[in-house]
Amino acid sequence: MDIEILYSSDADVAISIKGINAGIKDLQIRGTIRVVFKPLMNVMPLFGGLNVFFLNSPVIDFNLTSLANALDIPGLSEMLRTIVQEQVSAIMVLPNRISVALANNVDANRLRYPIPKGVLRIYMLGANDLIKADFGVLKKSKSDPYAVIRIGAQKFKTKVEANTVTPNWNEAFEAIIDEKSGQFMDIEVFDEDPGSKDDDLGNVSLELEPVSKKGMIDSWLPLEDVKKGMVHIKLVWLNLCNDILELDRLLSTDESLRQIDGDTEYSESLSSCLLMVCVDAAKCLSKSKKSLSEPNPYVELTVGQKKERTTVKLSSTDPKWEENFRFLVHDPHFQEIYYVVYDKITGKSLGEGSVPLKNLLSATNMTMDRKFDLKGGEATTNSRLLLQLTLRVLSNQLNPTWQEPEDLFLPEDKIPKAPEATSTASSKAEDTEIDVNSIESGVDPIKSVEETPTMAAGENRLSTDVDDMAPPSPTSELRQRRSLTPSLSSSGDHGRGRIQLTIRYSTKRQQLVVVVHKCINLLPCDGDNLADPYVRMYLLPDKTSANKRKTPVVKNSLNPVFDETFEFPVAPGELATRTLDISVKHNKSMFSSDRQIIGVVFIKLYNLDVFKALTEWFDLQPEDFGEKMSIGLPLNTFYTAAPALLALDGLPLNAQSGMGRRYGFLPFQGH
C-alpha cells in the first residue's frame, strides 16, 4: 500500500553551542510511504510482519532560526538540509526501512533485510546542448557540468567536465534495487561553481519497473525545468541467480564482464556477483587485561575497497548484532571478505579473519552459515564470529528458476516459546512451492521445513545437480531428487559414515576444484566415542607432498563441517586417467592406540562433465577396500539425472542394474 503524505510540523528545534543559539522550525516532509504487510497468515492478525519505508527520498523543507537565520552564511542552509536529508534516508528510505515482526514465528532479520530484486547497472554516458550557466567578462562562457544520480538512499556522482555544454562522462555505476514497482531513478545535472551554490542545469526521473522488464534501455532523455538539454544514459537490469554455470559464462574469457552488455570500457569497475553478509553474533571475546572490563565491540567488514561496520555493543563478550551488509564483487575467484572485531574503548583488535569468496561457489545454495574463528589481536582460543554469507551471480538472462521465494518464517526449533498456548501460522511446508523446472538449472527448490531429528544444528540442506540433457517428465525428476537425498541417520553401507563433496572443473584455469563440505555419522575413534577428524586427499597417480591437500582438524565431532575448497592443476585431456584418493582420518597422538583412518573413497574422473558441478554424498569404505571399490562418475547417455548420480565402477550402467534401482534413477527415455 502506497501512501502520499504531507507532514507539516510546528516543532521548534533549538541548539546552543558555547552560547551561540541556532535552530530550525516549520519542518515539512512530502513523499510516498510504502507499507508492506507480509508474510500473510491464516490466523489473526492475518499478516506476520510490517515494513514501512520511503520508496524515494522525500522532500524536506524548514526555516532556520536565531543566529543561523541572521547570518545566512552561503552554503550553510544547503549543508543543513543535506544533513537532515541524509539522516532521514538512513532511517527509512530504501534500502533502509522500519520493520515490525507481529508473530513469534517470523524471522525479524529476513523481514528487515529481504533479498534484493536485482542490480541496476547505470552508464552515465554524456549530455548535449546544456544551458550555459557561466558568464565571462567579455563573452558568454559555458558550464562545468556534472550529474548526480539518486535511487532511494543510494547516491552517485559523475566527474566534472570543465567548460563544456556537451560533456562525455562515460562512467558506470551499480545500484542494488530492493523494489522495482514504484521506485524511480532521479538524475540531476549541475554546473559546478566553487564558493557558491551550484547552478541547476535540469533534471529527469525514470521509473525502474519498465527497465526490469525490457532488460536494457539506451536513450537520450530531455531535461526538465530548463529550456533545453538532454542526457544520454544506458541502463542494464541484472537478475540475481545461484547458478555457478552462469558465472562461468560471464568470466569465461579475459574480456570478462564486457560480454554482459557489449561495452569494453568499464570491465574493471563492473561486478559479477552480489555478496550479502549477515553479522549475527560473536562469542567468547576477551576482556581488558588491565581492568578486566568487558569490551564495547563492533565488526568491520572489508571487500575490495569497500568497508562496512556494525553498531557498537556496550559491555559484552557475547554481542549480538543481527545486521546485514551488501557488497558488489568483481570476481569471487580472487577476492576475500576480511572481518575484524574491534573494542571501541581501547581501539584494539579482538580478533580477525578472512573467507575466500571462492568457497561460496561450491557451497550449498552459495550460502555459508557458520562460526568463523577469530585469530590475532586479543582473541582467545574460543573466540568466534557467527556470519551468514550468501553469494548471488548478476546476470542479464531471465530464468524463472532463479526467482527465489521469500521464506520469512523461522524453523520450528528457533521459534520462541510463548508462556501460553497460542495459535500459530500454518506450516511452512504447506506454503513452499516446488518448481521442478529449476532442477535442470542446478537450483535446489526443495527446502525442508522441519529438520530430521538426527541432523546436527546448523547443517545445510543437501543438494544435487541434475543433468539437463534429456526432457523427462516433472514427476519423474522429482522422484529422482527425493530418492537421492540420503538419510542422515545412516552411517553408509560400511558403517563408517558419509562425506559430502562438490567436484567441478574450471576450464578457464584448468583446475579441478574439490569442495569438502562435511561428514556425518563418522566411526568413533577414541575413548569418548568421538573423533578429531580431518580429510586428506591426493589426485592419483601423483602422491607427492606437493599434490597433497588437507583440511583443518575438527575437534570432538562425528559430524564435522569443513567447507574447505581445494584445487588440483590438471589438463582437460588428463582427467580420464585421474582418480581422487580421499581419506577421512582421526588426528591421534604419536603413541595413541586410537584408530587413525576412519574411511576412504576413491573417485575416478573418467567421465567428469567439465560443464557441470557435481555435489554428492559418498559412503566411506574400509581402508583395505582400496581402489577395488573405486567410484566412477556417471555416463550421461544412460540416465536423465546423470551428473548428480554415481555408479560403482565395473557394474553395468543400465536400467536393470541393482545400483540403478538402489539410487532411484530412471532409464533415459529420449531418442
From TrEMBL:
SMART domains: C2. GO terms for molecular function: calcium ion binding; calcium-dependent phospholipid binding; phosphatidylcholine binding; phosphatidylethanolamine binding; phosphatidylinositol binding. Its main location: membrane. Keywords: Calcium, Cell membrane, Endoplasmic reticulum, Lipid transport, Lipid-binding, Membrane, Metal-binding, Repeat, Transmembrane, Transmembrane helix, Transport. Residues 94-221, 256-376, 495-618 form the C2 domain. It is found in: Cell membrane; Endoplasmic reticulum membrane. GO terms for biological process: endoplasmic reticulum-plasma membrane tethering; lipid transport. Residues 483-492 have a biased composition (Polar residues). CDD domains: C2A_C2C_Synaptotagmin_like, C2B_Synaptotagmin-like, C2C_KIAA1228, SMP_ESyt. One of its GO terms (cellular component) is endoplasmic reticulum membrane. The keyword Metal-binding applies. InterPro entries: C2_dom (IPR000008), C2_domain_sf (IPR035892), C2C_KIAA1228 (IPR037752), Ext_Synaptotagmin_C2A (IPR037733), Ext_Synaptotagmin_C2B (IPR037749), Extended_Synaptotagmin (IPR051634), Synaptotagmin_SMP (IPR039010). It is a peripheral membrane protein; Multi-pass membrane protein. Residues 418-496 are annotated as: Disordered. Belongs to the extended synaptotagmin family. This is C2 domain-containing protein. It comes from Acanthosepion pharaonis (Pharaoh cuttlefish). The lineage of its organism: Eukaryota, Metazoa, Spiralia, Lophotrochozoa, Mollusca.
